[in-house]
Specification:
The protein is mostly helical. Helix content is 64%, strand content 1%. Helix 1 runs antiparallel to helix 2. The relative contact order is 0.15.
């Protein structure tokens, strides 16, 4: 056991600079990128798309500092979990069991795209059920309360987790890789989509066009209001990418459609729908 612990920490220390840089860069691309676009570049265009009244500047800045601190810790936890996973595979399997491949021709381009779709569906399912688990009263404080301290979230809320939640979030990755073959490019694409979508869900501005939430097809894709309402009410709307599980399990918040329409009714006043012709 001692040898295992020593090996984990040795691996962690040896690869930490590279692995931390990769994970931190991804977080910066998503959180800072979405923050810059929604809160700075398009702040005037999105003025009428603000879902809730923003926090006063002083409280907002304190919250963002806390979120960045928590997110940095989450990235460190992800890197450490990767070291633990590698060592476990070495001990029990004599090497990696991840089905990651480098040659596109091995499965073809159609499968590469399909694997990203499969990742998205699988992650949404995993997120929904683990999210509901973390909201159970006996587990909420230990896993999820840190994330919900951001009652009125910002793009930096994306990885603002307590360490136990960061571990739970990480677990999906090795489980998926052990089951589903995935190309390097597909993995990078899926992870970038994940962090950008995560930051968007917490940005506080409704980015989807009016009528989206009630559309018979498009409505399956969760809007910003969908997750923002979850942060406001602390219940319902547990899914991430899609509304499917919330609808099937009866956990979609009853105010969702009304709140989405309210957030998008500013189109005629210069909101994003009017500016892009998507209203």
């Amino acid at each position: 056991m001692l040898d295992f612990v020593i090996a984990v920490f040795s691996n962690f220390i040896e690869h930490f600079p590279r692995d931390f840089q990769v994970e931190a860069t991804r977080y910066v691309i998503g959180a800072v990128g979405v923050w810059f676009v929604t809160w700075v570049l398009l702040s005037g265009v999105l003025e009428n798309r603000r879902i809730r009244k923003p926090l006063p500047a002083l409280l907002r800045n304190k919250q963002i500092i806390r979120e960045i601190r928590n997110s940095t810790l989450s990235v460190i936890v992800f890197v450490f979990c990767f070291s633990v996973t590698n060592q476990l595979m070495e001990v029990f399997y004599g090497g990696s069991i991840f089905k990651i491949y480098a040659d596109v021709a091995e499965y073809g381009w159609a499968y590469l795209v399909f694997s990203v779709v499969l990742w998205t569906i699988g992650l949404d399912t995993y997120f929904y059920w683990t999210h509901r688990f973390m909201h159970l009263p006996r587990f909420y404080k230990f896993f999820h309360r840190t994330h919900h301290r951001s009652h009125n979230p910002t793009p930096f809320t994306a990885y603002s987790f307590a360490p136990p939640e960061a571990v739970l979030v990480y677990i999906f990755v090795p489980v998926f890789f052990a089951i589903v073959p995935m190309h390097d490019t597909a993995f990078i694409s899926a992870m970038l989509i994940q962090i950008v979508r995560n930051a968007m869900a917490h940005c506080g501005y409704e980015l989807f066009p009016r009528g989206w939430a009630q559309h018979p097809v498009l409505g399956i894709f969760a809007t910003v209001t969908h997750h923002d309402l979850h942060h406001e009410k602390s219940n319902g709307n547990y899914a991430f990418y899609f509304t499917f599980w919330d609808r099937v399990m009866g956990t979609e918040h009853p105010e969702y459609i009304e709140r989405f329409e309210r957030a998008t009714q500013g189109n005629a006043k210069g909101g994003i729908g009017a500016a892009t012709g998507t209203a």
